[in-house]
Structure formats: C-alpha cells, structure tokens
C-alpha cells in the first residue's frame, strides 16, 4: 500500500477502514491535518478535507453508497466511456466495481512519493465485464495526498488484450462551492460578478451535450452559471482555476494526458428528476473533469496510457489573480 520514504513514513498516515456499508476504504492523512478517503467501491475518492477539516468535494445527501450503484459525489473514475452508449452502463464500468489494493505497483519516480501518503489500487475485468466490453486491461490508480494538502490522482491503463482497443476517460470531479447562482454587483461599475467562476477555458471550442453535442466557441471571459451546463471543452490548457469568492478560495487544477475538460451542473429541473441528488443541492456543486473524450485513446497490445490530475486549494481575493500567478502553486 505504498513504499517507504526517508522523510515521510508514518504508519498513521494510511489507514484501512470500512464505511457504514462495510466496504473497505483507505484513509490518507497529511502531517498538517488534511485527509482523503478512497473507497474500494469504484476506486473513488469520497472525501478530501483541508487542514481545517473543511470538506472540499461535494457528495449528495441522497447518494447511494452500495454497489452496483455509483456514488453521486467525490471523484468517480469514468472508464472505458464517458456518457451512455453501447452495452455498458452510464460512464462505463470502473466506478461501479470493487477494486483491490495493488501490492505490486509499477515503480514511480521518487518525487511521486516524497513527502506524501498514498495508496495504489488495481482493477481488472471479471468474466461478466468481458461480456459487456470484451477487452482485457489493467487499470492502476495511485491516490496521493501531499504534506500541503494537494490531492493527486494518477491512472495507468495497460492493454493486456490480443488486439487494440479504444476508450474514453474522465475524473468526474464534484467540487464543493458556495451558491453557484449568486451574483454580486460591483458598485462602481454596476457590473455583475458571479461568486463561482471557472477561468482558463476562454475562447475554447466545446461540445454542448444539451444541443446534441453541437460544437460552439466559448465567448465569455470566464465560465459562470445561470442555467444547466453540460459541456466538453476541447484541447484545453493543462492548468485551469475554479474561483469561489464567497469562500475566498480557488481550486487550481492541473492535468496531464487529459486534453479535455467537462463542465457540468444539472440545475434545478434536472436535479428534481434525479433520485440521488437533493432538489436544491445543485447550488453547492460543480463538476470540472480532466478528461479524454473527443478523441478516444487507442492502445495496442502491451501499450500503456497514463493520465494525471492534481488539485490544490489556494486563498483567493475578490478579483482573480490570473492563471499565470496561480500556476506558482503547482
């Protein structure tokens, strides 16, 4: 469940427990008090708290925590598809399966474990899985928590099949935010300013799932929310930011191997139609996913793909400092 480190090797940093359904979960802790919970159901991060104990990820009060239902919240792993098509369930099979702890993970650079608590998980397809998606694979996931509270997820997918296969992938990240609808007016200019906004996706093309995946170009100077949003932003920068003015914090998201970004909020009407989310909970959540969707990844036999997502929370002032200055935190 990880390797020794000359600086950070406290047994108390990693704990194997069970959730209230009796499903195994791993709890990671940093020396400053941040924590992460990872469920073996779906290999899913279900909680990420900062050193003050504040929850940074959204989980619905109506979430169903029992297999085979995927949990509404945290960071589900979407593989081998994002969305709903073919014989597979919504967003693929990975988020609904029981993973195992990987006792023999591939070696990583010392910097990948230095000063961090981490766990390595593994998913292989069952015979039933192969009936739905007939491709043998190994999906490895490392979840690590740095001393400063930064959360990193690294996935490695290897084709152990006799023929090539293609897949889509996403870290379906539910961030906890203040009221996403709330707008303040800057008195001097009487200009509306949204409390929650995404920066770094300006001028990009996106596929709009509310318009049959029609392609549009983002016109705003930031992404803000006044109604349902379900978009895939294409060929996006590797660093984007989610600003939450009311809570005076910014999520800085850095990604590798994941060219796309999904932005989703179900808004009022769709929330009321969903069984596993509260009618009003859309106000306190936003999904911002590092993803590979527009151009599926193809692996030949024996080939491996890697995708990485890092999320860090930094204090933020009323006006954005800009991504250039935020990138210093990564």
TrEMBL record:
User: In the UniProt record, does the keyword Amino-acid biosynthesis occur?
Assistant: no
Entry superkingdom = Eukaryota
Q: Which reaction is the catalytic activity of this chain?
A: alpha-D-glucose 6-phosphate = beta-D-glucose 6-phosphate
Would you tell me the Gene Ontology cellular component terms? cytoplasm
Molecular function terms in GO for this entry? carbohydrate binding; glucose-6-phosphate 1-epimerase activity
Keyword Isomerase included in the entry's annotation: yes
**One GO BP annotation here?**
carbohydrate metabolic process
Which CDD domains does the UniProt entry name for this protein?
Answer: D-hex-6-P-epi_like (cd09020)
EC id: 5.1.3.15
Q: Which UniProt keywords apply?
A: Isomerase
Q: What class of enzyme is it?
A: isomerase
Record-listed substrate binding positions: 72, 90, 95
Q: What PANTHER family does this protein map onto?
A: APOSPORY-ASSOCIATED PROTEIN C-RELATED (PTHR11122), GLUCOSE-6-PHOSPHATE 1-EPIMERASE (PTHR11122:SF10)
Identify its protein family.
Belongs to the glucose-6-phosphate 1-epimerase family.
Protein's UniProt name: glucose-6-phosphate 1-epimerase
Organism for this UniProt entry: Camellia sinensis var. sinensis (China tea)
Traced from the root, the source organism's taxonomic lineage reads:
Eukaryota, Viridiplantae, Streptophyta, Embryophyta, Tracheophyta
